[in-house]
Amino acid sequence: MNNSPITTSIFDLFKVGPGPSSSHTIGPMKAAFDFLERLRQRPESTLKTADSIQVHLYGSLSATGKGHGTDRALVAGLLGWQPESTDPTALLALLKDPNVTYPVRVGEREFAVGVAHIHFERKKYESPYANTVVFRLADGDKTLFEEEYYSIGGGFILRKGEDTAEKTAAEIPYPYQTMKELKTRLYDHQLTLEQLMLANEMALTGWSAKEVNGRIDLLLDFMHKAVRRGLRHKGTLPGSIKLRRKAPVLYQQARGLAQSSDSFLIFLNAYCLAASEENAAGGIVVTAPTSGASGVIPGLTYLARHHFHYDKTTLRKGMWAAAAVGFLVKHNASISGAEMGCMGEIGTASAMGAAFLTYCAGQPIDAVEAAAEIGIEHHLGMTCDPIGGYVQIPCIERNAMGAVKAYNAFLLATAGTPANQKISLDAVIKVMKATGRDMSTKYKETSEAGLALSATEC
Known about the structure:
Blueprint: H1 10-13, E1 16-18, H2 22-39, H3 44-49, E2 52-59, H4 60-68, H5 70-78, H6 88-93, E3 102-106, E4 109-113, E5 118-120, E6 131-139, E7 142-151, E8 157-159, H7 179-189, H8 193-205, H9 209-232, H10 247-256, H11 263-280, E9 284-286, H12 296-306, H13 312-332, H14 337-340, H15 346-360, H16 365-377, H17 395-413, H18 425-438
Cofactor: [4Fe-4S] cluster
Pathway: Carbohydrate biosynthesis; gluconeogenesis
Protein name: L-serine dehydratase
């Protein structure tokens, strides 16, 4: 377990950016941008003799990067684009013509980057993480400058040689590493969960409570815009699978069955599919905690806003509960499909969604913990085996299933006495980490086994 306290910002966990994958799109774009910034700090003498920028992808980035648009994301980052301000249409247009190169400006030099400069390596590469990208400034076969990055899920990246411990800009007032420690802080200081989380966030960012709350409202707005776009957009998703969008059809079906007991579930399915289909199309989404799982929380928050009629204050409270669970999984296991399989993505999102619903309903922290534990427990061992490397099958429907499980976890956790729950959230996260470690790499975002092998039947 990581021995430092959790110092992740809610705005790092929930990030705005283009789909379809936080680890394969947002992470590589951020790494490329960081490499560009470091190139600009190199002495002119080094740049003068260089003739190219080469990018080498390993692990899952190599195995499924094409389907995720990793090559486009790398070019975008080298061009100076940032995930939160990227035009998804412009991103999709990159590398459409394999003969086109793009000028990367570094000081007085300009380097052409295109398909020939991005290498999807199939050989084994010794690396501490499954998603590795190496950038090289080269003079022929000679490397003049090199940086190695790891995309660790949810758009988070690490650079080789950096301290991997989580960093903080300020001393947080209520440090914790586990749910047990979090609950102790709440009880000792007589705080509500949102009070503690907000105090830590203000210390991390230096922002006022009003600024933090406004940014959470903005995140919810981005999520709900993705849902609304997905409910409108029809047709076929990009890629060789030719998968047709389903959300608009389900939404119309739910509206036609408004008096039916099934309509509630159909509405929830439609909302989750809508955001997830937008992600698969490369649209702007919010990592929750990843892009591959970016349909669960948006679908549930949209349902809470428009069916339960929760106000902004209640939705914000729920978002803090979801963030707390996401932080705990990221800190003590992983939210990366390449590390944990889909239990790291949809499993975490479902647990976060269960915590959101439970806290919005006014339930105590014990119930929030129980709901999150149930959410993860019933995703243990779930494989990540996307067909063709696209975040489409089984990913899109899996978002809807994860949300339904979240709702059921909320019901189960609040049906009895939460304190009687036999398995703690901390315990199930330990099991999750061990399961991910033991799972075959074939089932962790490499498209080498499972449903991915049914691609020939599509």
